[in-house]
Design goal:
The chain has 413 residues and is of the alpha+beta class. Helix content is 44%, strand content 16%.
């Protein structure tokens, strides 16, 4: 630390090596001064001033509390909270409430680091390096966080959904490779697109694989909490969700094209897969249902002509449910042909579960999985052309992605 003379006065100036310490000192002094100003405002007079005016409140300054560590994104500082006595009401600092030891930015950073793979044992070393040697953060902080997440998850699962206007649903059963259970129980996830274009997670529960019974329980819970019947549900062709939908929500169904293409290619020899991918891609991007039907027939003939009947049968199976997206706006087709919107958040989630081999059961990992989904939800982009979502919600009919005007014939009386 060096001293420079400005206008005849010596002033402390930091050098590069001591810059962060100097900045922390400046922040510490500023916060301490703001705390003093809060007490002045509360009592109506500056320090050492007598209470002479009628409008001055009763009460006196009564020294300071013990030094208190506060962790900010710029590091950890120590401040002393002023105390008052003989007042008619309790003094509460807006700047530094009781029992708060870290800023909201740091509080948000802790779950982010944990959810992205930092283990509990590494927290102390990592955060002291980032926030200073006296950072009030430890491995026990994560334990308390998980308890808090469990409570938040229980509240989230019971929240009413009758204020949502759900247009599309994506459903998937996700299996995590973290030793979650011997029988590989699944996490059943439901993602909704609302009439304003937002995408939100509406359900995430452990289920026994992806059975119709498990999915029926999920859907009945959504219905009982007030969620409306969606216009379209997108999912994998092998899910028990389809049997569950018929029991609870009779919505239109769209099977995932990514899963279908993989299923078809698995039935072809490797030397044929390159040519098949090109043909399947043409079907996938066909502009009309009629052209998609014609390309599907061409692909089936190609398969049978080369002795690959099972590949043709795999594509033709559930074909009507593969082409449902043509009945919805063209601008939304990119979202409706696959389950990517619900699968993408789990790519980052696996960083956490793969690092957490200690999780032996899905229900013990659910709080972490749910919190990770909530973090991912904050980054979800709205559906393109959100203005069309309201039209779909209200029942506008589409043919090959274009809205059609219904013609009503008037019969003379």
């Amino acid at each position: 630390m060096s001293k420079e003379t400005i206008n005849g006065c010596a002033e402390s100036r930091p050098d590069w090596e001591h810059l962060e310490d100097w900045l922390r000192g400046q922040v510490q002094g500023m916060i301490q001064e703001l705390l003093e100003q809060e007490v002045t405002e509360f009592l109506g007079r500056v320090k050492s001033a007598r209470r002479s005016e009628p409008e001055h409140r009763t009460g006196y300054r009564n020294g300071y509390g013990k030094p208190r560590k506060v962790t900010l994104s710029s590091g950890t500082i120590k401040v002393r909270r002023p105390r008052v006595r003989d007042t008619g009401e309790q003094f509460e600092s807006r700047l530094l409430p009781l029992f708060i030891h870290r800023s909201r930015t740091v509080a948000d950073l802790i779950p982010q680091l944990y959810l992205h793979g930092l283990s509990e044992g590494d927290f102390d070393l990592a955060l002291r390096g980032l926030l200073g040697e006296e950072a009030a953060v430890s491995a026990s902080t994560v334990t308390r966080l998980k308890d808090q997440w469990n409570a938040e998850l229980a509240q989230w699962r019971s929240r009413p959904l009758d204020d949502m206007k759900v247009v599309y649903l994506w459903v998937d059963g996700v299996y995590e490779k973290a030793g979650l259970e011997k029988d590989k129980a699944a996490v059943l996830v439901v993602l909704a697109a609302l009439s304003d274009g937002r995408k939100v997670v509406v359900s995430a529960v452990p289920g026994h694989r992806e059975s119709t019974n498990s999915w029926s329980e999920v859907l009945r819970d959504l219905r009982d909490r007030g969620m409306n019947c969606p216009r379209l549900v997108v999912g994998d062709g092998h899910l028990g969700i389809w049997g569950a939908l018929r029991n609870v929500y009779p919505a239109a169904e769209q099977r995932c094209w990514n899963h279908k293409i993989m299923n078809v290619l698995d039935r072809l020899p490797k030397k044929r897969q390159g040519e098949a991918k090109v043909m399947l891609r043409d079907i996938y991007f066909a502009e009309t249902r009629t052209r998609a039907d014609r390309l599907r027939e061409d692909f089936a003939q190609w398969c049978r002509g080369n002795g690959h009947d099972t590949a043709a049968e795999a594509l033709e199976r559930d074909w009507e449910r593969m082409a449902t997206y043509y009945d919805f706006p063209r601008e939304h087709w990119g979202y409706l042909r696959t389950t990517n919107p619900v699968e993408s958040p789990f790519a980052a989630l696996r960083l956490r579960t793969d690092a957490a081999k200690r999780y032996k059961r899905v229900d013990r990992a659910m709080a972490v999985i749910w919190k990770m989904l909530m973090v991912a939800e904050q980054r979800f982009r709205r559906v393109k052309s959100p203005d069309l979502m309201t039209d779909v919600y209200l029942g506008t009919r589409y043919v090959d992605g274009t809205a059609v005007q219904e013609t009503v014939e008037k019969v003379a009386a």
